[in-house]
Amino acid sequence: MAYLWLILSGACSVAASVALKAAGAGSPAGLPASLLGQVLPYLAAIGAYGLGFGFYALALRQLDLTLAYPLMVACAIAGVFGYGLLSGAESISAVRMAGAAFIAIGVFLLSK
């Protein structure tokens, strides 16, 4: 169950990052920016980070910190890459893919 908590924590981190990215992009051209439209992505990010913190705390009850943190970060990195690929909003180069592969190899080695 601890690994599920880590995956959910990583997913919350991805959701928060996507919300912050949307907040930074502002409103589409030609549309008036409402206060709620400007604040809502930030509130969503805060909520997602808070929920992720809770999931991470649950995982730490059963896993060593030196294993849990790299796994959670690896889940978040994989999620961000997935978002970038599926949304088309981010460019994924060979160098970035190699960097993600090295992170995955490092997490694998830490788990041994």
Low-confidence stretches: none
Overall spatial form? flat
Number of helices: 4
| SSE order | HHHH
Distance between the termini: 19 Å
How many strand units? 0
Structural domain count: 1
In short:
It comes from Achromobacter agilis. With 112 residues, this protein is an all-alpha fold.
Question: SSE layout and pairings?
Answer:
Elements: H1 2-25, H2 35-60, H3 65-87, H4 94-110
Main location: membrane
GO cellular component, one term: plasma membrane
GO molecular function, one term: transmembrane transporter activity
Polypeptide structure, described:
InterPro entries: EmrE-like, Small_drug/metabolite_transptr. It is a multi-pass membrane protein. Belongs to the drug/metabolite transporter (DMT) superfamily. Small multidrug resistance (SMR) (TC 2.A.7.1) family. One of its GO terms (cellular component) is plasma membrane. Keywords: Cell membrane, Membrane, Transmembrane, Transmembrane helix, Transport. The protein is mainly α and 112 residues long. The chain has one domain (2-110). Helices cover 80% and strands 0% of the residues. The longest helix has 26 residues, at 35-60. The protein starts with a helix and ends with a helix. The mean pLDDT is 86.
List keywords for this structure.
112 residues, single chain
